[in-house]
Structure formats: C-alpha cells, structure tokens
Amino acid sequence: MASTIRNQEQIAEPVMYRKQHLIPGTEIVTSLPLQVALYFNVLYSCPWFVGCVVALGSKYAALAYHYQFIFVIIYVIMFAVEILRLYLGYEGNLREKVPELAGFWLLTLLQTPLVLFVMANTNTIILPLDAAINVPLLAFLLAQLCLGFRALQLMIGAQAVKFYLSQFAPQDGVEMRSR
C-alpha cells in the first residue's frame, strides 16, 4: 500500500520538480541564442544574395576596371563563405562538433571585413541598397562572432570534461584484473 502511494506521488509530481540524475559529461551544450541567430541569418541570406546581385549589376558599369574585378571576386568569395559558414554553424552547434563550430567562427571573422569593405569603401559607388542589405548582415555577423565565441568556449569545456571522464570509465572488452 505504501509503495503504491509513493508511485502515485511520483506521477502527480510535476516533471520540472523531479530530480534528474544526469551522468556527468552528458549535458547538452548547444547554444540556443546562436542557433536562433543562425536560423534568421539563413532566412535573410536569400534576399541578401538577390540584393547583392542587383547592387553589383547597378554599379558595375560605373566602376573603374580594377574595382569591377575586385568587387566580382569579393562577392563570389562572400557568397561561397556565407553558404559554408551557415552550414558549419548548424553542424557545429547542433551536433556539438568543435572543429565545425571553430570553422564557422573563423569564417565569420573572415567575412566581416569583406562586408565592411563593400559598405564603407569611399573610392567606389556606395548605393543605398548596399547599406540596406549589408547592415543587417553585419549585425548578424557581429552577433554570431560574440555568440559563437561563447558557444565555442562552453563546447570545448564540455568536450574536455567528457575526455577526462572517459579515462576513468571502464572500456568495453577490457577486463580489469586484480593481482
């Protein structure tokens, strides 16, 4: 009778108040703020791509020859880096992979000066469309630099804890013999 009363108390107890005994080193360290920023950046990347193509097409004929070449190269690099950066951000954050998240952070660090060059180079034509499409991207990049750095710190710490704990756990197929 006492055991059934105890079982009923456990069922009636709200889930959030139950004690959960987690195994050390198994907690999830995925960064939700970084994931939200990545999600909205993915949604913004298609209009950004179209806006960049329109802006480059509008000012291409008026640019000096060397700036035509430079801007085409910069936009190609930015498009390729953006796709790879967002993929690595999703992979690294959701699957808790440190190399992918570090690659995401480094590519974000690489893309920021390129966006600033497109927006702030006074030797070329700066269209209002350039500012309209690149200011939100720059905000995403700066936010993701900060959030990605923090997520990377937490993930490296959690991976270190898992590594240290794995040294003390018995391994499959290995018997411990006492003498």
Protein traits:
single chain; 179 residues; mainly alpha
What level of helicity do the residues show?
A: over 70%
Task: Calculate the terminal CA-CA distance, rounded to whole Å.
Answer: 48 Å
Number of strands: 0
Q: What fraction of the residues are assigned to beta strands by DSSP?
A: under 5%
Low-confidence segments = none
Q: Report the radius of gyration as a whole number of Å.
A: 25 Å
Order of helices and strands: HHHHH
- Supply the number of helical segments: 5
By secondary-structure content and strand pairing, the structural class works out as: mainly alpha
Main sheet overview = none
Shape: elongated
Overall pLDDT metric? 85
Describe this structure in words.
The longest helix is centred in the last third of the chain and has 41 residues, at 128-168. The protein has 179 residues and is mainly α. The relative contact order is 0.14. It is elongated. It is built from five helices and no strands. The protein has helices spanning 2-12, 32-59, 65-94, 98-120, 128-168.
Q: How are the secondary structure elements laid out?
A:
Blueprint lengths: L1 H11 L19 H28 L5 H30 L3 H23 L7 H41 L11
Helix pairs in contact: 2-3, 2-5, 3-4, 4-5
Short structural description:
The chain is mainly α and 179 residues long. Helices cover 74% and strands 0% of the residues.
